[in-house]
Predict the structure.
Amino acid sequence: MANVTQLPVKGASAAHTEEGRNPGTKFDLGPVKDVRVNRSAVERRAATMGTRRTVKKEWQAAWLIHAIRTIDLTTLSGDDTPGTVKRLCAKARQPLRAELMKDLGIADMPLTTGAVCVYHSLVKTAVDALKGSGIPVAAVSTGFPSGLTPFPQKIEEIKASVKDGAAEIDIVISREQVLNGDWRALYDEVKAFREACGPAHMKAIIAMGELGTLKNIMRASLVCMQAGSDFIKTSTGKEPTNATIAGSLVMVRAIRQFHEQTGHKVGFKPAGGIRTTKQALEWLILMKEELGDEWLQPHLFRLGASALLNDIERQLEHYVYGRYASMQYQPLG
């Protein structure tokens, strides 16, 4: 089973240093206005993402084990309770059953998810449940998911989550600024959010499904990175259209352009509707082909998901035992 451990791994905590952060740049409208997106070419590339490359057998198992390390295990439901969050944190600490890990040949491998993502009111619960694990807590903020709460309230919400122990803050941008082409206002808003985050890493959710065009997606991504976003994130998971390969392709190429222009590395987080191993593999392939191996690591790539971990565990069980377990036997099923 040697190939199962093929992918080099950096711990999720590697992201949480000032050295690994995006300091941002001054606002520069030039690259934003110069954006050109060939929609037909993007859509052709996206359509073949899952067919041009495949991984099978032990190689697929290795990629799926690695994918677990990149998951922001998430619960953002109206009926969330402290019990729900504690259960989620236990799964983040032990994503796979000990018996399955032994049979995979990885019993001694330290394996956790990349983070746990919750609403602000449950940050303290998650921090306490994850104490000593090294797993960061991410809090959604700034009027998630609509981003329509008053600006001072957004700032206070960020500060409160950081005070409660959140190491990562997932902010949502004001979509109207993108739709109106008010790029300076978007920059100023996101920069203020970045300052309010203090030591916590900031992921900017651009809500790609509500921005209208691929060009707007790329422009919003560039402005958020100029303002100091450590990650850019596709969606809240609450929009009618969430993470898509086509929109993600535009975002990761914005990351590549920003890195080439500034030398700063920004992470990427697709979220919303990612439930199957096939989808997870498509995004891993996208990152490897577009940005390279470093962007496969948790400090630069996360998968925002809740049900995905169940499917990964079922696929790994099939690889080891030759059969699928019923979903009722999955801890988060």
About this structure: The two ends are 28 Å apart (CA to CA). Residues 14 and 299 are 6 Å apart (CA to CA).
